[in-house]
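Could someone model magnesium ion with this protein?
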Amino acid sequence: MATAPTTLVFDIDDTLYDVACGFTTHRNSDAVYDFMVKDLGFESSAAAKALRDEYFARYHSTVKALTVAEAEGKLPEGACFDAAALSEWWATRLDFERYLKPDEALNESLRRSPLTLVAFTNGPRRYAARVLEALGLRDLFPDERLFAVEDVMPACKPEPAAFAAVLERVGATAEEAIMVEDSMKNIRAAKAIGMRTVLVRGRQGGDDASKAAAEATKPGDAPQEDDPAIDVVIDAANELEAALPCLWQTPAVWKPPAR
Ligand SMILES: [Mg+2]
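Reply:
Sure, complex below.
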């Protein structure tokens, strides 16, 4: 018999809100390039973009990307990357409320979940808390169940050590936990350590230009629905309960629909 699930682990960006809503493009383009020009001394937004894209493709986290770029001597002369400064920059300068709105169906469903709810993002903590606040979900993910990149560095998703650190802190085994994610790299890594996986692929038939613009800021990580590492595919997080009503039963069981 399959191990009973106890814990739902949610990625935040492009998982708890739709990839096409415009927020990811807002965060991953001008907001981070401005930071790199003003705080790190890049000569132009284009130079900032080239470096950020190269390292983000490897790490899927801007904080880790800039940390490694600095260690490899790729930042402008004299630049000193401070993850807290980027966290502060994003938390105070992004227009959260313009793009992110509470999703009543998701909110209501998660409030009835019998499982332990955990948020695990490659973004920085203050930023992550602001996203959850704008989505009306902050109280569902209190500090001890919100994991940001600072909590798992020097690792970050998709490194197994990052997942292991989170699972240990919440007292769950990989087999008891379900990872809800939009990133294929993270889905594959979660599956490899024994977690169950749900891919959030983004709403279908919506604003394709916005979706493409957001995916372009995350090179090499677009959803691949036929990947064997995926147990369940949904379009949006608010479809989780309909796709897996077994997780809302008491006791919860793992009974995914056939793929
Ligand atoms: Mg994500």
